[in-house]
C-alpha cells in the first residue's frame, strides 16, 4: 500500500499538523519508503494469533478511585499559555464567532 | 536494598557535586562541546548537597546513592530544571510534579546535576533530532553517541557522572550505552514506574539506567525499581538486590545465542567481539546453546507501526492549550495546527503522520492490528526460548559502532534499522542490557544480555561475570 499526496493532506488534518504544500512530495516519498518495509508483515499467517496490547500478563491493575489528586508544586498559571479566573483560555470556536463576549 | 559502600557513596556530597560541575566544564559537555547537557543549576544542586551533608553530619543514614551526582534525560520530569523533551513545543516548561524515578534517586541520596539532550520526544537513534542540535560522541565529535538517550550516555562515558537516567522505547538506552562504551539497562516492562516520563509509546516505554560499570547500573536500577501507586502498569513483583548478583556463580547458566542476531552480513569484527565475550562466559562456567528467535526480522516493521501509532495518540496533548508553546491562528483549529507544526521537529512530525495513517479508517487492520498480532509471535519466541532452559540470551547490541553525524538522516528507514537488535526486547517486555565487549576501529561496541520477565537478577549476574572475565579486553 502506498500513500498519495491527498492521503498526506488528509492524515495531516487528522493529526492537526499544518504541512506546507511544498513539503508534500517529500513526505509522500519518505512515508512510502517506510511503509514498503511494513508490507513484509502481510506474508505472516496471523489468522489464529491474538493481538498484544502490551501491558503484561496481568493486564492493567486497577486502584481505588480515591483522592486527593497529587498536589502540584507550582500553579497552572506558571506554565499554561493563557488563563482567566482559573480556566484555560482557548480561541473562540467558529460556531461561536459573533456571539456576545461574556466579558 | 544494597548497603552503601565507598564505590558509590560520596563521603563529601558538596565536593562530589562541585567536582561533577568541574568535570562537566572540563570535558565540554555543554552546547559548545558535546552538547550533551541542556539544563543545569549548580547553585541548586549544591544547595541539595549541603542539605544532605547536614543530614549525614547529624547522624543520618546514607542511602545507596548518597551524594552521587546523577544526570537525567530531558523527557523525565524534574521540579527544579526544565523538562522540554528537547522540543520547541515545551520550551521553558518546568514540570509541577516530579517523576517517581527521580524522587527515588533523590531519596537514595542522589543529586540531580543535569538534564540531558536527546532526540526530540525520544524519537530517534542518534540524538541528532533535538531542537537544541545534535549530541556529539565523547570520543569522536564527528560521530553520534547513539540515541535517543545520547546525552545521558555521553556524560557517563565522559566521567561527568557515574549514573544517569534515560528512557527506552526501542533501544534508546542500550544502543547509546554500546556506542559510548558504558553499561545501559532496560528493565522489564512494569519494573520501573513511568510516572513523570513524558509518554511516547506507552506499551513500550520504560525508564532505564546508565552506569559507568555494571555495579553502578545495578544499584541505580535497584533504587528506581518497584511498584508505584501513581503508575498502574508498575508491577508488585519484589525487587531483588541487583548489586549482590555480582557475587553469584554462573556455573551451569545456559546462554542462548540466537542465529538471527548473527546474520552472514554481520561485521566480522563484531562477530569476533561477541565470540570472545561468549568464550569468557564459558570460562566462568556457563554453557552456550544455539537458538532461534524466528520472528526477529519482523521486529522493525512491527515497532515502527506500534510506536508511531501510540505516539500519535500520546502527543495529541501538545496542542497549545495547557502547557508549552502556543502559536495563535484564526481560530481553535488553526491554533492547534500552527502550534504543532512550529513546535514539533521533522522526525516527530513524520512519526505523527505515520502513526495517524496506520490507525486511520481502512488501514487499522492491515497495519496496526497486524503489527499487534506479530508482536504476539515475537513475544512467544522469547517465552518458548526461556521455557526450554535458556537463562539469558546474548547478542550484539548494535550491528556497528557509532556512525558519523549526518550519515543516516536523509534515509529514515536506514536510521530505524539501528534498533534491529534492541526493539525485540521492548516489544516482548523482557529486560535487556548492554555491556562493553570491545572496540572496532577504536570505537566501543556492546554485547546485549536479555532475560525472562523480571529476570533482571540473572541478567545482572551474567553482566557482572562478563565484566569481570573480560577485564581490560572490554575496552580493547
Can you walk me through this structure?
The complex is a heterodimer of chains A (103) and B (476). With 103 residues, chain A is mainly alpha-helical. Chain A is 24% helix and 4% strand. Chain A contains two helices and two strands; from the N terminus they run H-H-E-E. Chain A has a two-stranded antiparallel ribbon with strand order 1-2. Chain A is flat and about 55 Å long. Chain B has an eleven-stranded mixed sheet, sandwiched between helices. In chain B, helix 7 (268-283) links the parallel strand 7 and strand 8. Chain B has helices at 13-26, 42-57, 100-107, 150-157, 174-180, 214-224, 268-283, 299-314, 332-343, 346-359, 364-387, 412-416, 423-428, 456-470, and strands at residues 37-39, 69-73, 111-116, 163-168, 183-186, 206-211, 254-258, 287-291, 392-396, 432-440, 443-450. Chain B is α/β, with parallel strands linked by helices and 476 residues long. Chain B is built from 14 helices and eleven strands. Chain B is globular. The chains are: A mainly alpha (103), B alpha/beta (476). Chains A and B meet through helix 1 and helix 2 of A and helix 8, helix 9, helix 10, helix 11 and helix 12 of B.
Q: Largest sheet of chain B at a glance?
A: 11 strands, mixed
Query: Helix/strand-derived class of chain A?
Result: mainly alpha
Indicate the multimeric state.
Answer: heterodimer
Question: What's the helix-strand series of chain A?
Answer: HHEE
Ranges of chain A where pLDDT stays below 50 over 5 or more residues in a row are none
Query: How do the helices and strands follow one another from N- to C-terminus of chain B?
Result: HEHEHEHEHEEHEHEHHHHEHHEEH
- The total count of strands of chain B amounts to 11
Strand order of the largest sheet of chain A: 1-2
- Strand proportion of chain B, as a percent range, falls in 5-15%
In brief:
The complex is a heterodimer of chains A (103) and B (476). Chain A has helices at 5-14, 24-38, and strands spanning 83-84, 87-88.
